[in-house]
Design a protein that fits this description.
This protein is about 55% helix and about 5% strand. It is α+β, with helices and mostly antiparallel strands. The chain has a four-stranded mixed sheet with strand order 2-1-3-4, with helices on one face.
Amino acid sequence: MATNSVKLLGTWACPYVYRVEIALKMKSIEYEFIQERVFNKSELLLKSNPVYKKIPVLFHDEKPICESLVILQYIDEAWLNGPAILPSDPYDRAIARFWAAYIDEKWYPLVADYRNVEGKEAKAAMVEKISEGTLLLEEAFINMSKGKSYFGGDSIGYVDIVFGSLLGWVKVIEIVDELKILDETKTPSLAEWDEKFCSHNVVKDIIPETEKLVEIYHKYVELKKANLS
């Protein structure tokens, strides 16, 4: 497919952009990457996603598709070549969508907000909530994978992409906040899945090394302070 028919607007350090990149690579779709500004949003972004004003935005034949979960489903339906992203069975599709929504709406916001919580008791309560959620995801993985390597079974699927795209920044939070989230003693299946997912040929060149993300995190904090001052 010609690169000019598919374009992706995003930033290289955004986990939601990784989702789209992984899906496009799974489907062997060539595309043009358009770098979005971190702080001052471009006219292209504001015009193509006027509701949420967020990346990623996928352009297919100049038509914009917004929100990473929606984009993943669009890619799966628009390009039938390559491995399927969502399960073919209606019930399995519903379960995959349920857990993807849980990760985005419940679990990851807790993880991302941990560093903003003040006070020892409040932080302990937040850790407990994160742990409870991670245990739920461990159980979901066991049920969905049916003894295989991924949430999608033998191959990477929808929930793998949604959850896996966040792993780089989860590890940054673990380092910066000295918080163990994917604990091999408490969630051994997820810990093993983490290693397999991040080393997968489709994924390993998309999600940057943790050390690089930590460096970017510190630079982002400094830039944010400078922009607020």
